[in-house]
Amino acid sequence: MEATLKPDKAILEIDEKARKKLEAQHGQLNPEDRYKALMNAMKATQDLIEMADKKVRFALVVMSVLNAVAVLLVVRGGDGLLPKKGVMANVVRFEFVAYVLITVYYFWQAIEALRPRGVKAPMSAEMPSVVEPGKSMRVLFYADIISRTREQYRALWDNLRMDNLCTELADQLYVLSLINRQKYTALAKLYFGLGAMTVMLAIVIGTLGLYKVTG
Q1: Which candidate, 7, 23, 110, 215, has a CA 20 to 30 Å from the CA of 65?
Q2: pLDDT band (50, 70, 90) for residue 5
Q3: What is the mean pLDDT of residues 171-188?
């Protein structure tokens, strides 16, 4: 009997190990894994913010080149290139005004994409002072840190739990995602504006070429 029971016991132990392994793979994350996943997501979100800022700076370089061409047309064009009177002169003036307005608007979009999105430090009375399970204790963001005294801040860390950090990281990840949405919305408008500026400048050059040929 014993010989037949031992294999059955071994099989049960193997099945139990397999079940626990399956639970570990597909079950709820433990606090350490949750913290690691949130940190990875935070890094990916911050990388997106940096990428957006780089794309804005590149767009500003392209915008500067387009504006340099427009300035050269006005400054170096002279009487031989720019019409001074008549219908064609009014058309060119209108096109230049439209180009300037487009440039100003989309330059504002670049500012909107690049502007810092800090927050005002909250009052000390608004900050949590007693560690509670699962609650964000707001100990990671600079504005929250400086709203407390050094002693209060250290005391919180003495009793801090892993779920407190995970909750706060989840909140920060949500805020950073909102910032990314704002940045990339402004960035999409900015790049659409670069296309509009290019088309407008091409129309101006085409109009001046037409004036040169027919004038």
Answers
A1: 215
A2: very low
A3: 92
Distances (CA, A) of 193 to 97, 109, 148: 15, 9, 44
How many domains are there within the chain?
Answer: 1
Supply the range of the domain harboring residue 157.
Answer: 43-214
For 6, 17, 18, 121, the CA distances from 11, given in Å and listed in that order, are 9, 10, 10, 60
Average of per-residue pLDDT values in the chain: 83
**Domain assignment of residue 14, yes or no:** no
Distance, CA of 122 to CA of 120 (rounded, Å): 6
| Domain contains 21 | no
User: Is 90 part of any domain?
Assistant: yes
What is the C-alpha to C-alpha distance for residues 22 and 84, in angstroms, rounded to an integer? 81
